[in-house]
Specification:
alpha/beta; 10 strands; about 15% strand; TIM Barrel; globular; 11 helices
Length: about 300
């Protein structure tokens, strides 16, 4: 029986993947909007290699390994190149049908690795990383203690491209607050254009107890944009985003409006859909609050 340190998280697109919890928590864990790894038992640590291999053995014996593996927790790319390669080699030896390995990463993890290291990790099975960009606005990034700037995020994304690792970037509607909504959205579109990820996932900030920004909101220091201002942010980001060959989604349950488009060919179509919703100004066209409030994995 495999025991996980809970709660654990994975991207919605990894719902069919086996979750290999090689690390516990998040090594950064300072982002003010995030309540994911705040419990004492989630304090960041790396599992010993023999424990990781035992989990893989148990999963294999129980028939839990499939063709996809997501290595968790919050930023497993923090592991050394040699340790990641050892883990991935062991995964492939235990599961001949394994097709892809993915994980969360942060900008600092990528910048600390050379392109040579990243290529080695890629060649041993890492197909894609999920990175929380959140915003392209350096003022917002500093406020939320993201630990990465616009320029650093561009540099990290360029290294991923050179190594051949796909980038699934997450941006966060509303994280600039009411006052910095437009600056946040415009800068985020510019960042997505500069980084040119293969996938973009737009989420909407949800104020959850345990996250520092929740207390800021309670104290009146932070105000979340209203629903249609959030849709306006989505329009601004989409309008400012030019991808050479990527997908843009806002179908996460946190969002008021779900879109899905292949860029560049479907960009104008989805912009038109967003603008129709803004022009109608009708909440019936948005996801209801009770639907968005379902607890889900980020």
């Amino acid at each position: 029986m495999i025991e996980y340190i809970t709660p654990f998280f994975r991207p919605p697109s990894e719902h069919k993947s086996f979750i290999l919890q090689a690390t516990i928590g998040c090594s950064h864990n300072n982002c003010t909007y995030c309540a994911m790894y705040r419990k004492e038992e989630q304090k960041f640590r790396i599992r010993p290699m023999d424990e990781i291999k035992q989990i893989i053995d148990d999963a294999s014996a129980e028939g839990l390994l499939n063709n996809r593996v997501f290595i968790s927790d919050g930023n497993a790319l923090v592991l050394s190149t040699s340790k990641l390669v050892e883990i991935m080699e062991y995964l492939y030896s235990a599961n001949k049908g394994l097709e892809r390995i993915t994980m969360y990463a942060n900008v600092g993890d990528i910048l600390r690795k050379s392109v040579k290291d990243l290529k080695e990790i890629k060649n041993n099975g890492l197909e894609m990383v999920y990175i929380g960009f959140e915003s392209g606005d350096d003022v917002v990034l500093e406020r939320i203690k993201k630990g990465a700037s616009f320029d650093e995020t561009v540099e990290a994304s360029q290294k991923l491209k050179e190594a051949g690792i796909m980038n699934s970037a997450m941006v966060l509607l509303g994280v600039g607050g009411e006052k910095r909504s437009n600056e946040h959205a415009e800068a985020t579109g510019r960042l997505l254009t500069e980084t040119d990820p293969e996938y973009v996932g737009a989420l909407t900030l949800q104020l959850r107890e345990g996250a520092p920004i929740y207390q800021e909101w309670k104290n009146g220091e932070f105000k979340l944009p209203e629903k249609f201002q959030l849709i306006k942010e989505l329009e601004t980001i989409v309008e400012g985003t030019n991808l050479t060959n990527g997908y843009f989604y806002s179908n996460h349950i946190s969002n008021f409006l779900a879109i899905k488009a292949k860029f560049p060919e479907e960009k104008e179509r989805v912009l038109s859909e967003i603008r129709q919703v803004l022009a109608a100004n009708d909440e019936k066209l948005l996801r209801p609050d009770y639907f968005r409030d379902v607890i889900n994995q980020y």
